[in-house]
């Protein structure tokens, strides 16, 4: 962390097993206005090409949840060509993993990492709400998004 950098990220690709960054992310979670002073983004992807090893969806979702908890940008690059039929097709990814955020992205909620009690969205990662309603969700109550009313 002593190396000067505008953006710092962790690349978890290829993701070959479940990993926990929890002991690292909260310690380095950026605060508004401190881009580049901690870990700003986690990039996740599966392996492709001949001999590609599998990546489980649950492993990527767990990393997404860790990023939500730490208020870190999450970017899901691709699944594994071993066990994802359309491993590069963003629209075929599970709705929870249709997330491509950048460190400067306003959709990374730095102050409110809550979850909707109905659909589980966080208001930051709401592609499934957009797909269901056609508009991004927003908070109606502390644990209920607009897509679920």
Automatic annotation (TrEMBL):
Pfam families: DUF5131 (PF07505)
Entry protein name: Phage protein Gp37/Gp68
Organism of derivation: marine sediment metagenome
């Amino acid at each position: 962390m002593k190396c000067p950098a505008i953006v710092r990220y962790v690349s978890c690709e290829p993701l070959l097993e479940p990993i926990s960054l929890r002991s690292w992310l909260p310690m380095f979670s950026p605060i508004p206005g401190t881009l580049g002073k901690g870990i700003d983004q986690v990039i996740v992807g599966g392996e492709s090409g001949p001999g590609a090893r599998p990546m489980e969806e649950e492993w990527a979702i767990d990393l997404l949840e860790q990023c939500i908890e730490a208020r870190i940008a999450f970017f899901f690059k691709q699944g594994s060509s071993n066990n994802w039929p359309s491993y590069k097709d963003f629209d075929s990814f599970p709705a929870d993993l249709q997330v491509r955020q950048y460190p400067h992205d306003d959709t990374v909620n730095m102050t409110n990492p809550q979850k909707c009690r109905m659909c589980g969205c966080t208001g930051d990662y709401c592609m499934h709400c957009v797909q269901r309603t056609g508009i991004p969700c927003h908070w109606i109550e502390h644990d209920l998004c607009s897509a679920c009313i």
